[in-house]
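ugh ok fine here u go
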Amino acid sequence: MSNPAISNNPAFSGKTLSADELRRIYDQPSAETNRPGVDKAATSAAAVAAANRMSGRGVPTEFGSAEPMTYSNTISKTAFLFMLVVLGAAVGWWMPALMIPGAIVGLVLGLINAFKKEPSPALIIGYSAAQGLFLGGISGLYNGMYPGIVSQAVIGTLAVFGVTLLLFRSGKVRTSPKMTKIFLVGIVGYLVFSVVNLVLMFTGVVTDPWGLRTGVEIFGIPLGVIIGVFAVLLAAYSLVMDFEFIKNGVENRVPEKWGWSAAFGLMVTLIWLYLEILRILAILRGD
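structure:
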């Protein structure tokens, strides 16, 4: 999930507060650290990040900060994390042995960041560096089997990101409660399929290298391609959610520290999107 530390707090609800409302809130002696009824337990272990978004856990309650989150400082944080991922990927490319440790550390730090009530720049930076090692290692393996596939996946990822951003900027694409519920159901369904596929592969029930992804075809199209396209659409909607949360946070002047959560969410989505496109291309190019 994208932006797992941002959810239903008024600062990110899509409502832009008036100057008088901001002034009244900012002049209060202190801000509440929790809101009644929002600290609900996750309903599914496979949807921890989704439950965090819906429950409102780990979100700011401050408005009208003297040092607010802005588009500029959020972009700077995102660019910094992106560069860390790229540098880590360069190291992982030449040292593939770091791929597995990077994947494990990235997973652990990703879950910790998702559960933290406030963003931790150090942990978010660590997550980006670890994921970079993983991406570099796995990209090198794929490129060894299918030369040129990495550049194709990068172009595809940037294309989806750019088109989604342009559509969002134009106002043609926005989130809605109904679509977000469909998105959450889709995420859970995708996770269930992935777990079942792995179990079947590890137990030897399915001997195909991709499991059900290429062992099953629908109208001549490998199931993995259909599932992959579905995942790309989920990632694209996740990007829309990221953009909308950033927009609402900036307009409501939440503290600058929450820009780290926004940047973290964008990195999670982009990494997921890249891996899905990479896998689709590998399935299409496989014999």
